[in-house]
Specification:
alpha/beta, Purple Acid Phosphatase, chain A, domain 2, 7-stranded mixed sheet, globular
């Protein structure tokens, strides 16, 4: 075990070194390194419509809530077992009474901190999300930098022993065929060559209409890790562009961010389901919407008209909402159910 820990630490140091070199190179060369992917991005143009928040009362669902759509939630940096994590979990359960999502994406730092015991899993995951787990909701996790690597073997995280993996929604076949979505969960703490080869191969062979990436470290952020995000961007953005990724969910920053559309890809940072750094979100030309005054989670719906999103704080207030769609597919982001979850 000591040898394994030493190798992991050497690997971590190498990743840090590569990210620093990548960042320096990117800073010097600007965006020329992605010019070869411009054509790939142009082939799948996406438009973003944002909702006016004043139009959305508290505790109101701002999604279409169609009968045959893919519905899921997103949380990040959740696993503390704190009062705030429980309050977010309660809002997730309340909204699910109206918006019947069947699975949750976890964007890393799922169980703070380091080696996890059975008690850690109970206090920081099983108890906060008991209502969802009891209802059969599945969780799909990506590893964060504070996570025990052995989480890959924790059955409720559905990683099946893998640091990175791909999956389709755990829904009925007809729904999956109606709205084709595939997820790609990555281990952004250890971005080795083997994982990158796997990612390029899986993206290339997928014919999904929506390709969604899940990882811990953000590529775009207005928080404190902007320099590190440049390194992650250098490592991954080209693969995302050439592979046809549409949406990326990450955590790490304990805030909410929705990026400006970046070469046809929309990036979300959702690291506030159990952690918060109030005041950390700075103004950035890369970011369209930020929120850093409360904890939050996200609800997502994919229909044949587009991908709809809603970010909600622990009091049930909507902090961001809108839709992505491709030209020719009308979404009208304001045409939603407008329903409030039962109290």
């Amino acid at each position: 075990m000591a040898v394994v820990r030493i190798l992991h630490e050497l690997d971590r140091q190498m990743i840090r070194f590569l990210l620093i070199i990548s960042t320096l190179w990117l800073t010097a060369c600007g965006d020329l390194w992605v010019s070869k992917d411009t054509a790939a991005a142009a082939q799948r143009p996406i438009q973003v419509e944002a909702r006016e928040l004043k139009e959305i009362p508290a505790a109101t669902l701002a999604l279409p809530n169609e009968g045959r759509s893919i519905k899921f939630a997103v949380i990040g940096d959740s696993g503390r077992g704190s009062t705030e994590q429980h309050e977010i979990a309660a809002q997730m359960a309340a909204f699910r009474q109206r918006f019947d999502y069947r699975f949750v994406l976890m964007a890393g730092d799922n169980i703070y901190e380091g080696p996890a015991t059975a008690e850690d899993y109970r206090l920081k995951f099983e108890e906060p999300y008991k209502a969802l787990l009891d209802a059969g909701v599945k969780f799909f996790a990506a590893l964060g930098n504070h996570d025990d690597p052995r989480q890959v073997d924790y059955r409720p995280f559905n990683m099946d022993g893998r640091r990175y993996y791909t999956f389709t929604p755990p829904l009925d076949l007809i729904t999956r065929l109606d709205t084709r979505v595939r997820f790609f969960a990555l281990d952004s703490t250890y971005l080795d060559g083997e994982q990158m080869l796997w990612l390029n191969r899986e993206l290339e062979k997928s014919d999904a209409e929506w390709k969604i990436a899940l990882l811990h470290h953000p590529l775009y952020t207005s928080g404190r890790y902007g320099l590190a995000a440049r390194g992650i961007r250098f490592a991954l953005e080209s693969a995302f562009l050439s592979g046809g990724v549409d949406v990326v969910f990450s955590g790490h920053e304990h805030i909410y961010n929705r990026s400006e559309l970046q070469r046809g890809i929309l990036y979300f940072v959702s690291g506030g389901a159990g952690s918060l750094r109030a005041g950390d979100a700075k103004r950035s030309p890369l970011i369209a919407k930020s929120f850093d005054t409360d904890y939050h989670f996200m609800l997502i719906e994919v229909t044949d008209k587009g991908l709809f999103f809603q970010a909600i704080d622990r009091r049930g207030n909507t902090v961001d909402a809108g839709a992505l769609h491709r030209p020719g597919k009308t979404t009208d982001a304001s045409a939603t159910s407008g329903t409030a979850p039962p109290r």
